[in-house]
Structures are given as structure tokens and as C-alpha cells.
């Protein structure tokens, strides 16, 4: 069974409310989608969001990377020759990790479909249900309280709260949310590189002193500031997660060996897809380090792929896949079932997606 063609398009899905972090505000998901079709007609699906502030990619660069470099390198290859496909994919162009991730997950989707199994089973997993956090945007306190209470009402027991814009005032927002939702809700803090190392230690220490019971703090300092990240970890009790600081297995190994963070956040758009994410999981398992899996305002295709990886790997103990609950519409067919804070993996082959979305989709081209 050979790769016959790769179809590429784009989707625009409005969000229910704007997504706000310390670094950006987004009103809609505007992502590149691909479909890899074999000579037998079987199709696999992939997706890439343009997240220029993190990966350096735009819609135009993702489209060109796939059409001009990645797709031509793997057209005509046998789908079961997975290792060679991945070697060619990653050698076709440097960086461009989101473009690579879209093709990677579509290949894995196809691979699992040809084996007649859900992807999580092919990857060695047996979990059929995982629990995800709900992301709270960085807004004025009254809006953050409203969104937090609504998320709890909708069935989420874990909140991932975005802060980082106001430094010490972030403490007030977080304490207000804790008081509103009560002690039974797990709260994670996503600082989005918004603090200096000194401010991070001051803020996290204040939260600890005031009984915030923060489950973890994610990427408190700039991605390149590994010394600052380690400084924060050494001076607080709350677990520290490295997110934007880790793209590759090499990055993960360095963070772990230097003890610069307690946990690792895997995102397929940073790693370049499932193939490289599995290497990070192997490193984490070797050193006994837990991982989180997250996403970058992706729609159901790539969120589903990430959910399958989370269900397959025991080292992934924390999930932040906001999924379709964040969007005004959801026009995909198939995939895992998102109900409140629960993601249920089904029995469908591959990642479970069976077609491009029916609405808000535009076809861009075909590579043969």
C-alpha cells in the first residue's frame, strides 16, 4: 500500500470566547489540514496550526513546507515502511515542526488504519479514557472567575489557568479562582514565559504561603532561559513544567539531566509529530519523569492524535487538550468523544477521523 497523493486545505473555526495568554490573543482557529491517500483509497488525516510566536510558522510557511519539501519526499512510499518515511520526512527540511507534525500524524493514522486498529492500541496503549484540563484565558478577574465556574459546571475538575501579564497581580487572580471553585478542583498555572526568574520565585512562593495548592506551574520564564528555569525549580516547592523550552528529545534530555524542571510538556507541534514525541517519552520513562501533553489551539484532528498518544503512554500523566469544547462549531466526523473533562477513545481505526470538515473548509491543492 503506497502513498499516492497528499491533499492540502485550510479550516477556519471561530472560538466561543477569545483565547488569551501573556503572549497572544486568538479569536479563531485558522489551521492547515492535510489528507494522505494511498493507492488503495485509504486516507489519513493531519493538521498544523500557525503559531509563529512559538514555532516560527505561518499558514503560508506550513503550506509551502508540506507542498514543496515534505510531501515530495514521501510520495510513492510503502506505508508500512514507517521508519524510512519518518527519516525522509524529517530530513526534507529543517525546523518547520508543525508542518512535519501534520504529515506525521496523517501517516500514523494511515498506518493504524491499515493494521485495522485504533492508533492508541498500535502505540501499545490500553487506556480508553483520559481526563483533560480546561484552559482559562488571561482576562480580568471577573471574566476568569466566570469562565472557571462555567468549566466546573461543565464537568471539568482540572483548570489550566493562563497568567503572566500582571506579575504580582496574577496572585490575586489565582487566589480568587481557588476561593471560587473550592479545594476539590485541581489548578495548574500556565505562565506562558511571562515572568522573570526572580518574579516567578516570588509569585510561586506567595501562592504556596497562601495555601493556593497549585498542582504545577508551566513555563514560568522565557524558553531560552534554562538557567532561570532551573533557578525557579530550586527555590520553590511547586512542580515546574518545561513547555516551550522543549522541542526535541535532545532538549528533553538536557532539561532532565540538568534537573531544570520537574515535568515535560509534549506538544506534537513542537516535536514534529508522534514519531519524535515517542522518543521524548522513552527518555522520560528511562529517567522516571512524568509528562504532560498539550496542544496549540488545534482542532479535532490533531487533538485526537495527541489524545491517542496520551492513552498509549503511561509516562503521560497529565492532559491539557481543550478539544471541541472550546469552539463554536465542530464539523468533523469521528474521533474521540469529548464530554466535559473526559476524553473517551473509541474503537475506530486510526485516530478515528473519517472526513475533512463539512463547513469552514477550503481546499488548497494536491501533491502527487
Automatic annotation (TrEMBL):
InterPro entries: Dipeptide_epimerase (IPR034603), Enolase-like_C_sf (IPR036849), Enolase-like_N (IPR029017), Enolase_C-like (IPR029065), Mandelate_racemase_C (IPR013342), Mandelate_racemase_N_dom (IPR013341). CDD domains: L-Ala-DL-Glu_epimerase (cd03319). Binds 1 Mg(2+) ion per subunit. Residues 142-239 form the Mandelate racemase/muconate lactonizing enzyme C-terminal domain. Pfam families: MR_MLE_C, MR_MLE_N. SUPFAM superfamilies: Enolase C-terminal domain-like (SSF51604), Enolase N-terminal domain-like (SSF54826). Signal peptide: none annotated. It comes from the Bacteria. Its EC number is 5.1.1.-. GO terms for molecular function: magnesium ion binding; racemase and epimerase activity, acting on amino acids and derivatives. Mg(2+) binds at residues 218, 243. Coiled coil: none annotated. Its cofactor is Mg(2+). Keywords: Isomerase, Magnesium, Metal-binding. GO terms for biological process: peptide metabolic process. Belongs to the mandelate racemase/muconate lactonizing enzyme family. This is Dipeptide epimerase.
Amino acid at each position: 500500500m503506497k502513498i499516492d497523493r497528499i491533499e492540502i486545505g485550510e479550516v477556519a473555526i471561530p472560538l466561543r470566547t477569545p483565547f488569551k495568554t501573556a503572549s497572544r490573543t486568538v479569536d479563531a482557529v485558522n489551521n492547515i489540514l492535510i489528507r494522505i491517500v494511498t493507492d488503495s483509497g485509504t486516507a489519513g488525516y493531519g493538521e498544523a496550526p500557525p503559531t509563529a510566536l512559538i514555532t516560527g510558522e505561518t499558514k503560508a510557511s506550513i503550506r509551502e513546507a508540506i507542498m514543496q519539501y515534505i510531501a515530495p519526499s514521501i510520495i510513492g512510499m510503502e506505508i508500512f515502511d514507517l521508519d524510512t518515511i519518518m527519516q525522509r520526512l524529517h530530513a526534507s527540511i529543517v525546523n518547520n515542526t508543525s508542518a512535519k507534525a501534520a504529515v506525521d500524524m496523517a501517516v500514523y493514522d494511515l498506518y493504524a488504519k491499515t493494521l485495522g486498529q485504533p492508533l492508541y492500541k498500535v502505540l501499545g496503549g490500553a487506556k480508553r479514557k483520559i481526563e483533560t484540563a480546561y484552559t482559562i484565558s488571561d482576562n480580568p478577574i471577573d471574566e476568569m472567575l466566570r469562565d472557571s465556574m462555567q468549566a466546573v459546571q461543565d464537568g471539568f475538575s482540572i483548570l489550566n489557568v493562563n497568567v503572566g501579564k500582571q506579575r504580582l497581580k496574577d496572585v490575586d487572580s489565582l487566589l480568587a479562582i481557588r476561593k471560587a471553585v473550592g479545594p476539590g478542583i485541581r489548578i495548574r498555572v500556565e505562565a506562558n514565559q511571562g515572568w522573570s526568574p526572580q518574579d516567578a520565585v516570588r509569585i510561586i512562593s506567595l501562592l504556596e504561603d497562601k495555601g493556593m495548592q497549585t498542582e504545577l506551574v508551566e513555563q514560568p520564564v522565557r524558553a531560552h532561559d534554562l538557567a532561570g528555569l532551573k533557578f525557579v525549580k530550586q527555590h520553590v516547592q511547586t512542580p515546574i513544567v518545561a513547555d516551550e523550552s522543549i522541542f526535541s528529545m535532545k532538549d528533553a534530555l538536557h532539561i532532565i539531566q540538568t534537573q531544570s524542571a520537574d515535568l515535560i510538556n509534549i506538544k506534537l507541534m513542537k516535536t514534529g509529530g508522534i514519531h519524535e514525541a515517542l522518543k521524548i517519552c522513552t527518555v522520560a520513562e528511562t529517567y522516571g519523569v512524568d509528562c504532560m501533553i498539550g496542544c496549540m489551539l488545534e482542532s479535532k484532528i490533531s487533538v485526537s492524535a495527541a489524545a491517542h498518544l496520551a492513552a498509549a503512554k503511561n509516562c503521560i500523566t497529565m492532559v491539557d487538550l481543550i478539544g471541541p469544547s472550546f469552539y463554536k462549531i465542530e464539523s468533523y466526523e469521528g474521533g474521540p468523544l469529548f464530554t466535559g473533562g473526559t476524553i473517551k477513545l473509541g474503537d475506530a481505526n486510526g485516530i478515528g477521523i473519517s472526513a475533512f470538515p463539512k463547513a469552514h473548509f477550503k481546499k488548497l491543492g494536491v501533491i502527487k
